[in-house]
Amino acid sequence: MTRESDAGFESESESESEVEFDFEPSERVQAVPPSGIRRFFEIAEERDEVISLGVGEPDFAAPWAARDAAITSLEQGKTSYTANRGMRELREAIADYADDRFDLDYDPGEEIIVTAGASEAVDLAFRAFVDPGDTVAVAQPSYISYEPGVIFAGGEVLPVPTYREDDFRLTVDALEAAGADEADLLVLCYPNNPTGAIMRETDLEPIAEFAREHDLLVLSDEIYAELTYDGDGEHTSIATLEGMRERTVVFNGFSKAHAMTGLRLGYALAPADAVGAMNKIHQYAMLSAPTTAQHAALEALDSCGDEVRDMVDQYDRRRQFVLSRFREIGMDVFEARGAFYCFPEVPEGWTSEEFAEELLREQGVAVVPGDVFGTGGEGHLRVSYATGLADLREALGRIEAFVDEHAEGSEG
Ligand code: PMP
């Protein structure tokens, strides 16, 4: 709500100094604490030669053919809105892609909505399906936007911890212990930001059974689906398991696999009723996702599969390098198999925040303290390897120097 001050409305010349207008944020906005990461940016700005392993976006530019398609669309004057749900041709391409890659079978007419990033799709789902007071179970540690999104929608988050000893996979034991049987929705993110965990079909089966048994709507953020580095390299969507398609909304987009973060394009796949409800918000809040980006995305799906595979190979090489270096340094780290993050433990005697802050101050390496990702994150760091190998090599050298120096300090 907004409030005018008691001074009321004065004449124009006086109004500047005497009329105060208090933009008092709504209770929902006030309920979300400010981001804890801001301080790190401030420290980073004070230092030269900071290497950031803190960002959650590819260091690659979007494939050239996708950029070229965007340019051509602009040259051709394609600068109008599209259909609310996105260009029909793009939805058809998404339907083919989702089917080919992940066995997800959705009708481009009614079961796909193209959004301004996966972020918009996630927000639409919270607003479409969460009533005030509803409980949304969120497997944590997790991407930082879910909790605020739930609060903005008027719901309450029920954190469901995942544990290092389970390789950060969600278990039914954890769901039961948290009381998620009483929840209305369940949010999953695999491959996971920030842990890099994946869940295979056999891991997802019991979760699916739990969701069916307790009638949960599942929101499955699969934006890192392509970035899976596991044996056969295949990602399984929970929506492909028996009885799950009808209760799941799947999110994906072009930011990660296609390195198109700045083009802001994502989508949701879900049964027609669910997409209809989300579109009801989207058509008023957004009208349509950015048109130029939709042209780029269409080309990305049509012709950029090789570039995606090449980027995934490079992430995998970096992943192996970073994991092996952390082990050499003596920092315990589990075998992350997805996304572009690993999640090492901080040495004893440090909190995540202290370690990350001192590392940045002393060595100019930025990583994200695990506690910002919710329950179970404390004691870890999120380290992104969406950075070239040369920088990774240098950064890991600095982390080693930092750890050695402090270990010597504690002995002496
Ligand atoms: N989900 C997850 C798990 C993410 O890590 C991110 C980006 N960091 C998003 C969604 C948002 O992606 P987009 O750029 O498509 O909005």
From TrEMBL:
Pfam families: Aminotran_1_2. The keyword Transferase applies. GO terms for molecular function: pyridoxal phosphate binding; transaminase activity. Residues 49-399 form the Aminotransferase class I/classII large domain. GO terms for biological process: amino acid metabolic process. Its EC number is 2.6.1.-. Its cofactor is pyridoxal 5'-phosphate. InterPro entries: Aminotransferase_I/II_large (IPR004839), AspAT/PAT-like (IPR050596), NHTrfase_class1_PyrdxlP-BS (IPR004838), PyrdxlP-dep_Trfase (IPR015424), PyrdxlP-dep_Trfase_major (IPR015421), PyrdxlP-dep_Trfase_small (IPR015422). Coiled coil: none annotated. Residues 7-24 have a biased composition (Acidic residues). Residues 1-30 are annotated as: Disordered. The keyword Transferase applies. Keywords: Aminotransferase, Pyridoxal phosphate, Transferase. It comes from the Archaea. Belongs to the class-I pyridoxal-phosphate-dependent aminotransferase family. Homodimer. This is Aminotransferase. The lineage of its organism: Archaea, Methanobacteriati, Methanobacteriota, Stenosarchaea group, Halobacteria.
